[in-house]
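thread from #wetlab-drylab

HS: before we spend reagent money on co-crystallization trials with pyridoxal-5'-phosphate, can we at least see a predicted complex? here's what I'd submit
DV: go for it
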Amino acid sequence: MTSGAIDLRSDTVTRPTPGMLAAMSAAETGDDVYGEDPSAIALEERVAAMLGHEAGLFTVTGSMANILGVGLWVSPGQELLCEARAHVVRAEQGAHAALHGVTTRTWWHPRGLVDVAAIQHMMAPDAGPYLVSTAAIAVENTHNFAGGTVQPRDELAALHAAVAGTGVRLHLDGARLWNAQVATGVPIRDLAAAFDSVSVCLSKGLGAPVGSVLVGPADAIAEARLRRKRLGGGWRQAGVLAGAGLYAVEHHVDRLADDHTNARLIAEIIADAAPGVVDPAQVETNIVMLAVPGRAAQLVEQARTAGVLSGAMDPNTVRLTTHLDVSAADARKAGETLADLLGSLH
Ligand SMILES: *Cc1c(COP(=O)(O)O)cnc(C)c1O
């Protein structure tokens, strides 16, 4: 990164805090392939308990947690349904198809939300000898590429009811599920309750350098543990990293509220200077999407020169993400920088 720049490209860019580094160096370790790393085991148990699931599996990335989670439920040639901009189908290099033979169909929602009517229309749990059978549905909460949107609870309950008795499984990509908890006040275990498996990231807003956890039923997680090794994801002294994760879930959840406040602040400053680029009322968590038709790359470059790093999602959309290493003063400065650029472009 450009030194001294305010880095809003992603909430993955955080550095471990001194407290986190101390927890990492104090963590007990052992060989986790032998099941002997006490910190990895503690992290898996802690996150499973937080999410109200039986067991947990520490993975190197959220992608690996999703690949293993979906792979538990969908056999080769069966299908996964998900929203059109879901991370599982857009940002995991086709892993579900390439590694597990998963086929996918998508529904579209402008805010990335679950649409039970659309899902019911598509879902074919036992499609017979001619069509592809639906084995699982993936939901993303919060939805990254739709702008950090939170899935409405009643729609999740309706989805749960819609699959009851069909054998169709539900996987939750909860990379930013803690953001959803903090934004809504709904406990994370309630947000995770309807799902057969859930992945959560420690490396996003929680500020750990690495890691995700997949939770689900004990027998399924035991199977995922074998498959993690097959993918080359077996850990040795994982406790150094699990220590960061344990520290993150203890100390960095409540402060996500600051990221949400900072994201809203950025959106408000920009909306004042350049109406129509962003609606602050739609900024629910730590992600701000700017609608800049045809000039996303240009804006990203101009902002970079002015000391603010951002990301072009497509030719029309710039994403700004707040996190642990962005202060309120940084957010204000970044908002003002972008407001100046957008105001002069108008
Ligand atoms: C970041 C992210 C993941 C996991 O990404 P990794 O880089 O593989 O850790 C999964 N889903 C969503 C929605 C994400 O934003």
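DV: The chain has two domains: 18-251, 255-345.
HS: ok that's useful, forwarding to the group
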